[in-house]
Prior knowledge:
By secondary structure, this protein is of the alpha/beta class. The chain has two domains: 6-71, Chemotaxis receptor methyltransferase CheR, N-terminal domain (Chemotaxis Receptor Methyltransferase Cher, domain 1, Orthogonal Bundle), CATH 1.10.155; 82-274, Rossmann fold, CATH 3.40.50.150. It is built from eleven helices and ten strands. The protein has helices at residues 6-20, 29-43, 48-56, 60-71, 83-97, 115-130, 147-155, 160-163, 169-175, 187-190, 224-237; strands at 103-108, 137-144, 157-158, 176-178, 183-185, 193-197, 210-215, 238-246, 261-266, 269-273. A seven-stranded mixed sheet has the order 6-2-1-7-8-10-9. The radius of gyration is 20 Å and the shape is globular. The N and C termini lie far apart (59 Å).
Amino acid sequence: xxxxxxxxxxxxxxxxxxxxxxxxxxxxxxxxxxxxxxxxxxxxxxxxxxxxxxxxxxxxxxxxxxxxxxxxxxxxxxxxxxxxxxxxxxxxxxxxxxxxxxxxxxxxxxxxxxxxxxxxxxxxxxxxxxxxxxxxxxxxxxxxxxxxxxxxxxxxxxxxxxxxxxxxxxxxxxxxxxxxxxxxxxxxxxxxxxxxxxxxxxxxxxxxxxxxxxxxxxxxxxxxxxxxxxxxxxxxxxxxxxxxxxxxxxxxxxxxxxxxxxxxxxxxxxxxxxxxx
Length: 277
């Protein structure tokens, strides 16, 4: 198959940024070719020019979602980087447990295949086991642009290789049921989480407000303008005193320093607090 042409690359580059915010620079041209190659083969398309021709015609809905799915990164781990989860447990869960009737609302944006929200729910369950009757009520909304990733997350079934990426044996035995070929999340962990599709480029207004938002290791794929827009809207989605968790290589730009207060910065990312007024 011929390499992608300049015209086809430019078309797909602009399409991905417009529809998903993903920025594919010239240095990632090879990645676009590799990830879309299987789509071309499965659809019997001769080359990338044929794909672009179909996208310019009536086949845009058919191929558009698959292109975005192919270019979306689902790299994730259980309890990734540890310290954001430690902070959530120590600075949010424990104080809430000391307030009778307290509850927390959490949003995991770009949740991929579910490891992040399930990890948070396990922390809540551990507190419920340690302090019966005192654990706060926690509701977690987990979103992603990828329907394929969300299907895996909702199913909550993971193979041994996936579980080796951050899941210890004690939690594995406590929070999963062994199946023939994989392990399934137990209902008490899954019941706190609602999975739904969402694009970070669209409005968050219908989501309401949250005590904590995890938006980790996703903003690095957006242009500076779109990143600023998303962060500006995230602050509106946080309750006063709420906490924003970002990933490595992600930080609040100077134009928003008055909206967020840095709580902790480490190699795995930053934790920011929205002032209570």
